[in-house]
Amino acid sequence: MGRVFSWEYFSFLNIDEAAAYKEILILPVLVVLLFFIWMKLVNNSKTDTSAKEGLDIRQAYEDALANEVGSGTELDSPDEAEEKDDTEKKDD
């Protein structure tokens, strides 16, 4: 029996060494197995996204302009004109 300090109980615990060795052998195998499963998932997601056609720089720029016009953040928006009028009235 091995003695291991436990911070949870703030004391030494007796642990069965046979169970500890089994755990030490199972954990690396489990990590390697999960690694290969994860890499397979990542590879499948890359092939799925590469099948889709991406945007070129011109299309991305046009989409950004269209979104800006639709969002009301363009330079000549009516909200900004009202803010300018309010500041001019305060200055007078």
TrEMBL record:
Give TM regions: 20-39
User: What keywords are annotated for this sequence in UniProt?
Assistant: Membrane, Transmembrane, Transmembrane helix
Q: Where is the composition biased (Acidic residues)?
A: 76-85
The segments labelled Disordered in the record are: 68-92
Q: Does the keyword Transmembrane apply?
A: yes
Q: Kindly provide the name given to this protein in its UniProt entry.
A: Uncharacterized protein
What organism is the protein native to?
Acartia pacifica (Copepod)
